Amino acid sequence: MGLVSSTPMLMEARKNGYAVVAFNVHTIEMMQAVVDAAEELQAPLILQTTVGTVKHLGMDYITAAAKVAAAQASIPIALHLDHCQDFELIAQCMRSGYTSVMIDASMHPFAENVKRTRKVVELASALGVNVEAELGKVGGVEDDIVVDEADALLADPAECELFIELTGVSTLAPAIGTAHGIYKGEPNIDFTRIAEIAGKVEVPLVLHGGSGIPAAQVQRSVSLGMAKMNVATELKNAFSESIKQSFIDHPSELDPRKYMVPAKEAVKKLAMEKIQLCGSAGKANAVQTR
Ligand SMILES: [Zn+2]
């Protein structure tokens, strides 16, 4: 099948208490490895790229490769644009074939966030594309977006409800204490807040900063309503550490087709662990894609 919108897979996940994992990929090999992982576990999958990766690979290369992956796979695959602040780029990605986008206007005041998100929702709904928006501010570093821990702001449950009503957004990323990058200590997740938000809004919720959250905390977040978990840093690190080790072990080996083999394996292994942790293994068939 072709790339599908992430809406049905996320609705199904929210309804049944598991989460679809969205993997940030930066190379074709990383994309192939996470597709292999999801295929083997029969899990619905979200391939995700940041704006930096769109600039690095080119959006048409990304959509072409993701379409090939979706055509060859037996599982539903969505292609998502992560943390984008630029309406024009979002529109271009949708036209290029992205089936899911995130408008991140969380750095603006509430009313401006609503306005910018609504504009994207209007265009996306005509195209059947899922829209994710953020409320509050997730701390840490994602591409060029740097949010100091002190400036990280948790989402207000009442505002979440109003935000959904005013924007019609299909997926919400409320800041609840996670951060981008690798945690120095344990993340300080506000579980009460997740439960309160989930009690007020029916849309799937997104857990950003999924790298390095202890398994029990991921499972608790998912059981409370987090229906999508983003994994970026850990995946990138697994890929790069493997390549680094290959060069240490075989300094004269210069063939990418050799050192990419263990790198892909490392990515696949980690992806399978995350899918199992989030409970989406075996759920590929539960998603209505037609
Ligand atoms: Zn994020």
TrEMBL record:
Its EC number is 4.1.2.40. Keywords: Lyase. GO terms for molecular function: tagatose-bisphosphate aldolase activity. Pfam families: F_bP_aldolase (PF01116). Its cofactor is Zn(2+). The keyword Lyase applies. NCBIfam families: cbbA. This is Tagatose 1,6-diphosphate aldolase GatY/KbaY. The lineage of its organism: Bacteria, Bacillati, Bacillota, Bacilli, Bacillales.
